[in-house]
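If your schedule permits, I should be very grateful for your opinion on a structural question. What I wish to show you is a protein chain and, alongside it, a tokenised description of its three-dimensional fold. Would you kindly read the sequence against the tokens and tell me how you understand this chain to fold? Here, with my thanks, is the record as I have it:

===
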Amino acid sequence: EQDLIVERKGLIRLLHPEKLLEKLGENQAPPNITNRVRLKVPEESGPLLALLQKHARELRLPLVATGFSSVSRYAVMPRGDCLSVYCPRLESLLERLPGSRADRFPNLELLEAAEEPVYFDARPEEDFWWASPVQVFLELIAGDKRDREIAEQVKAYLLKNLLPAPS
């Protein structure tokens, strides 16, 4: 099957990107989330993205939005009011963030994940790191019917933006 997806004559060349995405979606395991915290960070604390980046920089923590929170960069899908972010050491970030865990309407969800794939190929935009289109695709394709429909838009984005194969 691998030989149907890639060619290995000298250079390795991707022959069937659609099949590769399909196989990735079928074989992808969700990230190992060891802790999940939902917060309501008050608006008077300043812009949420800037606040997160500031503390992540000070703590030298990689921080990246989840695929679900990054989807609007690659497809048309309204994003909810809650920003969901991967972080490897949640407690150190929580010590610096203002906010309440008891609020019923959180605007920030922190997911503790130390796995490298969730941070791989993250894209900087507006001084914040967003999930790669492949990460977005993988999270959406594992979701419900609506998520899978949006995953098809992300797949189209990925296929459209492939670099042409060298001749």
Q: What stands out?
A: The chain has a mean pLDDT of 86.
